[in-house]
Amino acid sequence: MSDVQGHIMYTFATSVQDAIAATGEFRAGGTDLQERLRSRNANGSLIDIFGVEGLDDITYADDGVTIGAMTTLSTVGDHQQLQRDYPALTLPAQTLATPQTRHVATMGGVLCQRTRCAYYRHPELGCPKKGNADVCPSRQGDHHLGVVFDIGPCVYPHPSSIGCALLTYDATVQINGAQTLSVADLFGSGKDARSDHTLKPGQMITAIQLPVATQHERASYVRQMSRAWAEWPLVEVVVRLIMDNNTIKDAKVGIGGVANIPLRLTEVEQALIGTEASEESLSRAAKVATERCTPLPGTEYKVPMVVAGVLEALEQALANESGGQLEL
């Protein structure tokens, strides 16, 4: 059903079919959308999906686990079986943002949140992602919080920490309860100046699917932050190591805060796989993390942070045999 409040048309969906048939922007936990409403960057119709049942389940099966898109971050972070089986997901789910945000933010919502760039968020400044500019204003303006992997028109980092974690699991998302899309394809190449993901109008994430858990996994999540800008990481790293005694049998490294999409550092992974875990091998792998870096004039300071963040995450993962429970 629909209602009009002020100048905004609300659709209160009670099913996935109701939601995808309506016109507007989906509202889940609302942690991003409410802020954009306040800054007048979400002025169209809204589709409230909070009342859609069956989207907040965590279901194990022979082929892995399915996490409903309306499952909150705190539920994922506190889930003991997920902590044991998918620690590289539960660690960031326990630590990102604030406890209040994690209590209401949803798994689907954090994948689809919009850029935190000040030019985009300002109600009176132009930005291609708002459709009122052709060129990213941050590129020639203030970009000290921007990218060091300059791969597309937008030079502000993508905000999804969970996206980084899911990339390390080669996870997929379920669209409209039917279609399946890899998380990598959800974010795309970063070449689209007007979007933070590849979903089209009428497409809604209904679930996240992870493959069968891998034994002997060690994981870590490291974020480097500024005291003045503590809300969002300058650099964040998610690491999964699959060990065979002291040999790194497999490695997955995701990085955020450095590109307009979450990235996999495949060059670091290749440098690690098959090596004996040692201070030397971890340091050597961390140094190749910047091979693709193309920093902006104002983000060169982040380049050594990438190396330091990757090395710290590798060291923490190697030492972490307790799984995905945050140790306080």
Describe this structure in words.
The protein has a 5-stranded antiparallel sheet with strand order 5-6-9-7-8. Strands 1-2-4-3 form a 4-stranded mixed sheet, with no helix packed on it. Strands 10-11-12-13 form a 4-stranded antiparallel sheet. The mean pLDDT is 91. The chain has 14 helices and 13 strands. The chain has a domain at 217-319: Enolase-like, domain 1, CATH 3.30.390. Helix 5 runs antiparallel to helix 10 (161-167). The protein is of the alpha+beta class and 328 residues long. A hairpin with a 2-residue loop joins strand 1 and strand 2.
Q: Average pLDDT across residues? A: 91
Q: What portion of residues belong to β-strands?
A: 15-25%
- Find the CATH topology of the domain at 217-319: Enolase-like, domain 1
- Kindly state the percentage of residues in helix: 25-40%
CATH architecture of the domain at 217-319, by name, is 2-Layer Sandwich
Spatial order of the strands forming the largest sheet: 5-6-9-7-8
Q: Which regions are unreliable across 5 or more consecutive residues at pLDDT < 50?
A: none
